[in-house]
Amino acid sequence: MRFFVRRRTDWECDFRPGNVKIIEEWYVIMNSHALPSGEDSVRYLELIGMGAVIRRHVDLLGWLQGDLQSHLPHDILIAGWGNFRDGCIQHDILSELPGVRSYAVGTDSLPFLMGKFHDCWVAAQRQPCRLNFCEFEYFLGKTSLPGSFCSALRSMRSVLIHGLRDERSRQECLYVMLSVDDIPSGPAGAAIKVLLPFIDTSLRQLVLLPQQRSAAVPSARIPPEDVSGLSERETQIMAWVAMGKTNSEIGSILNISGFTVKNHMQRIFQKLNVFNRAQAVSKVTRVTLDG
After folding, report:
1. CATH number of the 54-213 domain
2. pTM, to two decimals
3. Residues near 113 by Cβ (< 8 Å), separated by ≥ 6?
4. What is the pLDDT of residue 217?
5. What is the chain's mean pLDDT, rounded?
6. Angle at 204 between CA 115 and CA 25, to 5 degrees
7. Does residue 207 surpass a pLDDT of 60?
8. How many C-beta neighbours within 10 Å does residue 148 have?
9. For the chain, what are the domain ranges?
């Protein structure tokens, strides 16, 4: 079965039955259980079709802050993907708020916060969940500069969480929408289930930011397991520890939280059978020199 919708620009869209079913479910949920007229259908298809041609962050931001707001109201969108278990997460942030940028000062603790959001989503059986952001505010620390990323987060009131899993790469991508107002859990929860695949597709088409590009390139010089039994990530951390970097500084360099670095250090101490950073550096250096 083939479906065609005529638009004013005189181009035709070909929809498989499964795709039409998604659109019909959307309208049943969002329009008092009544399928809209052809005119409304065309406007909706135009809205989601805009995401297919987005290639820049600024265009994606304009799309998210435009007509999409009537379905998914939010002030900040955070996308995180990677290994949520150990905090090896990359991210994108889209917002019009001052200081809220993907790699602004204060985003070093974001992997840890996204890990907590991921835990909530898993606990909700990977279904959309809306939460009060004040439950997570203490993760931001005690201080934040006006106009900074953390300061903007403190003004948020509600958060809507949903994600997608890529079975090919065995990775999950989590989407967190934050708002200074209450996000209506019913309509927004239904909307994000329908719209998230389109948002995800748009994000995957964007050119990587410089920080993402460097983080996405694996180091060919570091073996997965060195002679000390340390993992690749633990070996990276120990290299910076040997240079005198703090947990917070290492987290900023590796784009993970200082808390995650601390957890890695505890595992390193156990593997090396040492009690402090100096002993760990000494032992790793000795093993390296001894071959």
Report:
1. 3.30.450
2. 0.64
3. 136, 139, 140, 257
4. 41
5. 77
6. 85
7. yes
8. 18
9. 1-52, 54-213, 225-290
